[in-house]
Amino acid sequence: MKEFCLNTIPIHKLQKINNIQDKKLVKMGLKTIKDLLFHFPIRYEDRTQINSIKNLIFGTYVTVVGKVIETKIVFNNRRIMLCRITDGTGILTIKFFNFTPNIIKNTFTPGRQIIAYGEVIRGKYEFELIHPEYTIYKVNSNEMIKKTLTSIYPSTEGISQLLLRNLINQALIMLDHHKIIELIPKKLNKNLISFTEALHTIHNPPLDNLQKSEKKIFLAGNRLVFEELLAHNLKMLSIKDKIKSYDASPIPKNHKLINKLIANLPFSLTNSQKKVLQEIEKDISKNHPMVRLLQGDVGSGKTLVAALSALNVIAQGEQVALMVPTELLVEQHVDNLRQWFTPLGIEIGLLFGKQKHKERKAQIDMISNGKTSIVVGTHSLFQKQMRFNKLALIIIDEQHRFGVHQRSALWSKGEKNNFRPHQLIMTATPIPRTLAMINYADLDISIIDELPPGRNPVLTVIIPDIRRNKIISRVEKACLKGRQVYWVCPIIEESEILEAQAAEVNWALLKKALPTLNIGLIHGRMKLEEKKKTMNNFKNNKFQLLVTTTVIEVGVNVPNASLMIIENSERLGLAQLHQLRGRVGRGSLESYCILLYKPPLSEIAKRRLETIRNIHDGFLIAQLDLEIRGPGELLGTKQTGTIDFKAINILQNKVIISEAQQTAYSIHKLYPEKAIDIIDRWISKKTFDINVF
Ligand code: ADP
Ligand code: MG
């Protein structure tokens, strides 16, 4: 697009930016003028009024003007700069932990008037601001008292809000010199404000009274989100068209093998399983590839449905690849499948990262010469050396752990001329319908909406972690009764190392507290052999207690485990908590889940934990999560997809999701060139690097 030659102008062409800052911005994904324009505020702050120190309220954000009384540097383990200011009504302390000594000479000199903005903290010196935004106060040129709301942007250390605001304002000026093309056809535009106006408003809310200003921000947000939703819907529609243009090998239903397997089961299929199996069988009997998402709550029996679908393919002499996110799950699925398939004379292949070289080579050979008809594996399934013989169906388990391009990398392994394999994509993280339309509009959806009979809901309680000792004795009692227990130590940073450490520390503490028990430890940084051994020991009841990280979150099945403790539960997503809890309550025992939290709980955290405590239906939990957090935040999380959204996290209004979908259908049909432009504007090629689609 000509308009977005802004797309090609790098940020360092702007003023007031140095090399280091430029590098940091690039790291944040801000490379061009367009990136800046699409870097939307996360929130707005009201700095339209000066607050008097006497009337400050702890926990609120305030703007204060005051005269510096004294500034000093104190040592208390670390260097701290303290500056006391007064506005005549009271005294406020400003604290800095990171500072250069110049700051005193340049700004916080006694006698000077300072203006500072930040959150009021209750400190040793009563009112405190820690690392506030600040500047020297000059009457009539007050930079920080704004007549409108101030945008706050996602940022990183070393990139100040002032710098971001300044750069974005320069970008907005450049925007005005370029002709922006409205991409939404006039006929389909129902009263939306212009794209340019929306960009200006979202970054610089207009001068107005607060209420009017908020209304305008809302309209601008709507305009941008609507177009981004359009882009994603249009992308999905184009993917769907593309899929339809491929051929696939039609797979007829093979009653004989299926009935044999079912006859060997100690239970019968649930109605939902039967219904879903039929949907899949109908799809794969066609000569275009199936791409179907199978949603089913934790424990609803998706593996069996996958196995039965696979059987049809195997019976026809073609191949199936089942991809799972962890090596532990490879083991478990292989165990399950062997149980079902060995009596039918079907061998299972397996493939994973840490396999011994010789073993792996043997497995790959068997797959490429067609001797293996079904293989279970991790990401290794789409490694370069892999060649399939006649890959006709790929099954992805726990799809939220895979990126779109990983799914497609496996898919392309079955590419032959215009032929592509069928795809069955399974997830236990149900996402509400409205959201599914954005993330999965390219897929057909099947739902298993019942659990096998005889399952008891897991009794869930919420307990502050100060009562840990009580819990420990409860664990002991349960174990002495022959029960088994999971103790889950998730931590919040996205680091396997830290998570492993947290689990190790807890393991040591629990071993000390419970010397009579055998306690296992499992985390992502252990060798596979070790993990396998520990898991087997737990399965065989040699360990009564298993201390674990979230590696057990997906899929693991130990029916005798009937108690689970989850630490830091207030910081986990609802979907993840539900998944974790799904590891207990798998047998006939009454099962319990204890959610430990660090008090105090915020109002939202409380509501979320209560939701998990009271509700056991994963679909309903997902729906409530949507209501508590709002669609924007939910779509922005990893649980719901791998798409990198730009504006959608400011989405407040659910209605526009379906409006955008309707409009997308019309644009797709009537204005195909516009569709391409809208997709280009919002979706980076990298995000959707799916050449095979
Ligand atoms: P998920 O959907 O979470 O992947 P699994 O496939 O692991 O669930 O199934 C959980 C357990 O339920 C397994 O032990 C499986 O053998 C069992 N199961 C599957 N289908 C049924 C059924 N129809 N009746 C009873 N148990 C079943
Ligand atoms: Mg599963």
From TrEMBL:
Catalytic activity: ATP + H2O = ADP + phosphate + H(+); Couples ATP hydrolysis with the unwinding of duplex DNA by translocating in the 3'-5' direction
Molecular functions per Gene Ontology: 3'-5' DNA helicase activity; ATP binding; ATP hydrolysis activity; DNA binding
Entry keyword set: ATP-binding, DNA damage, DNA recombination, DNA repair, DNA-binding, Helicase, Hydrolase, Isomerase, Nucleotide-binding
Boundaries of every Helicase C-terminal domain copy: 481-632
Keyword Ribonucleoprotein: no
Function: Plays a critical role in recombination and DNA repair. Helps process Holliday junction intermediates to mature products by catalyzing branch migration. Has replication fork regression activity, unwinds stalled or blocked replication forks to make a HJ that can be resolved. Has a DNA unwinding activity characteristic of a DNA helicase with 3'-5' polarity.
NCBIfam families, per the entry: PRK10917.1-1, PRK10917.1-3, PRK10917.2-2, recG
Similarity comment: family membership: Belongs to the helicase family. RecG subfamily.
PANTHER family linked: ATP-DEPENDENT DNA HELICASE HOMOLOG RECG, CHLOROPLASTIC
This protein's name: ATP-dependent DNA helicase RecG
Annotated organism of origin: Candidatus Pantoea edessiphila
Lineage: Bacteria, Pseudomonadati, Pseudomonadota, Gammaproteobacteria, Enterobacterales
